[in-house]
Amino acid sequence: DGKPVSLSPLESQPHSPRYTASSQRERESLEVRMREVEEENRVLRKQLSLAQSRSPAHHRGNHSKTYSMEEGTGDSESLRAGIVAGNSSECGQQPAVEKCETIHVAIVCAGYNASRDVVTLVKSVLFHRRNPLHFHLIADAIAKQILATLFETWMVPAVRIDFYDADELKSEVSWIPNKHYSGIYGLMKLVLTKTLPSNLERVIVLDTDITFATDIAELWAVFHKFKGQQVLGLVENQSDWYLGNLWKNHRPWPALGRGYNTGVILLLLDKLRKMKWEQMWRLTAERELMSMLSTSLADQDIFNAVIKQNPFLVYQLPCFWNVQLSDHTRSEQCYRDVSDLKVIHWNSPKKLRVKNKHVEFFRNLYLTFLEYDGNLLRRELFGCPSETDVNSENLQKQLSELDEDDLCYEFRRERFTVHRTHLYFLHYEYEPASDNTDVTLVAQLSMDRLQMLEAICKHWEGPISLALYLSDAEAQQFLRYAQGSEVLMSRHNIGYHIVYKEGQFYPVNLLRNVAMKHISTPYMFLSDIDFLPMYGLYEYLRKSVIQLDLANTKKALIVPAFETLRYRLSFPKSKAELLSMLDMGTLFTFRYHVWTKGHAPTNFAKWRTATTPYRVEWEADFEPYVVVRKDCPEYDRRFVGFGWNKVAHIMELDAQEYEFTVLPNAYMIHMPHAPSFDITKFRSNKQYRICLKTLKEEFQQDMSRHYGFAALKYLTAENNS
């Protein structure tokens, strides 16, 4: 009867959590039957059209459009195919995209927020895709740093990323005044014919606030419908903006009817270049700016002005390819059912708070991808050869050399696990002090220590670099927490780096390395999230850096560590007050009750009366908190969870002949908290302790091989301890 079989995109995908083996067989069977029926329909339609063309009684004007969703400027056969097709390309008459054909996608992305938003778009594309993808990212320096690291650590098969410097393109569009909130970057889609490789023939261009509800290959297939001089695939604008009736004296840029929205564009680059697109849009913009003075909707205004003069350039896409969720749009006319939805566009500055009858449904669909575990998208495309990835090959080689029967296999494997990493998850803005004394506090944490952040900010006014170990859903909880905190939002000198959860261990030393690597100051204070530094420690450390000539000597400045067992503490404002609290038993030297060796070499008895810095010697199991130059060695990744993670680092500093110098007027206090999951495992699991001992011995052997005779003292000290 010509009715589509509607499949909800989230329910029909093989990688959906609700998907089962039995439903896969059912779906495959259904798809085969649907293709058979559709082929029969195609033959019947062809025969019918032949018969009708021979019949003089046939009236071609009888067929009316079904509803606005189906509007398009392709031929009538394509239009009918669009009506028959639901959400799946397999049901439609569109020419199929080759199984391993690469789909090219271009996105302009600049700044911290856009770099975060684009991840949700990419997740939605990856979730549904069955083809290799090539993303062309026009990015500023910030977005490039963030996204290059993210994709490098994401390691998604059959995905290639290329970056183009957005800052180099500014001069191409900076002459155009733009009132839109996207700023100068909102104009850069105009110069894609010049920016993208000259041999790239076609590309899908997307805004960062897009969510896909179907396979992007369906959209790629629409290129086959372009005819004549059609070079731009666009959806009609769904607001009344270009009609000019929104308010008195509202004067929009010229547009054809309602105009077109540029959140989703199909660009035939090769034809656009031959048409001299660059010259075309520039002349149009120059002419219109003489009376309009500036753009209101960035590139969209200029695209529409060009189309107004040259309507033959456009292939009008059905509006389900860009369901626009700004206030008061006609978007509801683009869908009758969930299965009609293909692309959702949050094109209002209000984003998720937009007014729409079905906004709750759209919001939930968006949140599904926002919080979706990105690790699950590392799926192979079977039958499609991937480009050789050196990092991936090396990783596989290292893993293959491990013995899976080894009882410590999981510990050893963690060392080689590549954790997806999103640097600078929130806005970061900091210029280090010009006197080269600046110090960054470095720490790592998981969700259960989030409450320490505000307190640390009140104690430390300098820059902070934090690595947070979170799931995708927890990262969004953190974002909401941070955005709701006046203390955190008032600080722009904190770098939040998300390392996404994977595996069964807490990769403490990887987290420390990530936080250490992304500091912009010459020195760093290697701390832990459970410690509150004394008030004024930041300025004190900057003075100490000069006093002890840290720039020209290998020193590790020790900040003595204390602890309280009280959840409510009147924090000591001076060394004298701290000593008084020590004497009263309100404070203790750190780990005094359970692990004295960890901080005993600090020599707290001497510290009580010291007025000048003093040197101490390394001893077994020493793990002080230190200030060092940013070029100090990384932490050893083999140590995960609880045990020996800091001890090994301090041992390496000693092997490299760092001097340990205790600061006489510095201190930090550990605040109480529930035991971590890893220390609980260490205490209760005998195999955990055996593996930790094995890793310690292997680390010491590596030290001996690397540092020679001088490192023998570590083996001796361990045996004597």
From TrEMBL:
Catalytic activity entry: 3-O-[beta-D-GlcA-(1->3)-beta-D-Xyl-(1->4)-Rib-ol-P-Rib-ol-P-3-beta-D-GalNAc-(1->3)-beta-D-GlcNAc-(1->4)-(O-6-P-alpha-D-Man)]-Thr-[protein] + UDP-alpha-D-xylose = 3-O-[alpha-D-Xyl-(1->3)-beta-D-GlcA-(1->4)-beta-D-Xyl-(1->4)-Rib-ol-P-Rib-ol-P-3-beta-D-GalNAc-(1->3)-beta-D-GlcNAc-(1->4)-(O-6-P-alpha-D-Man)]-Thr-[protein] + UDP + H(+); 3-O-{beta-D-GlcA-(1->[3)-alpha-D-Xyl-(1->3)-beta-D-GlcA-(1->](n)-4)-beta-D-Xyl-(1->4)-Rib-ol-P-Rib-ol-P-3-beta-D-GalNAc-(1->3)-beta-D-GlcNAc-(1->4)-O-6-P-alpha-D-Man}-L-Thr-[protein] + UDP-alpha-D-xylose = 3-O-{(1->[3)-alpha-D-Xyl-(1->3)-beta-D-GlcA-(1->](n+1)-4)-beta-D-Xyl-(1->4)-Rib-ol-P-Rib-ol-P-3-beta-D-GalNAc-(1->3)-beta-D-GlcNAc-(1->4)-O-6-P-alpha-D-Man}-L-Thr-[protein] + UDP + H(+); 3-O-{(1->[3)-alpha-D-Xyl-(1->3)-beta-D-GlcA-(1->](n)-4)-beta-D-Xyl-(1->4)-Rib-ol-P-Rib-ol-P-3-beta-D-GalNAc-(1->3)-beta-D-GlcNAc-(1->4)-O-6-P-alpha-D-Man}-L-Thr-[protein] + UDP-alpha-D-glucuronate = 3-O-{beta-D-GlcA-(1->[3)-alpha-D-Xyl-(1->3)-beta-D-GlcA-(1->](n)-4)-beta-D-Xyl-(1->4)-Rib-ol-P-Rib-ol-P-3-beta-D-GalNAc-(1->3)-beta-D-GlcNAc-(1->4)-O-6-P-alpha-D-Man}-L-Thr-[protein] + UDP + H(+)
A GO term for molecular function: glucuronosyltransferase activity
Cited SUPFAM superfamilies: Nucleotide-diphospho-sugar transferases
Region of interest (Disordered), residue spans: 1-75
Pfam family, one: Glyco_transf_49
Superkingdom classification of source: Eukaryota
GO biological process: protein O-linked glycosylation via mannose
Keywords: Glycoprotein, Glycosyltransferase, Golgi apparatus, Membrane, Multifunctional enzyme, Signal-anchor, Transferase, Transmembrane, Transmembrane helix
Annotated InterPro entries: Glyco_trans_8, Nucleotide-diphossugar_trans, Xyl/GlcA_transferase
Compartmental location: Golgi apparatus membrane
UniProt record similarity statement: In the N-terminal section; belongs to the glycosyltransferase 8 family.
Protein name: LARG1 glucuronyltransferase
Species per Swiss-Prot/TrEMBL record: Zapornia atra (Henderson crake)
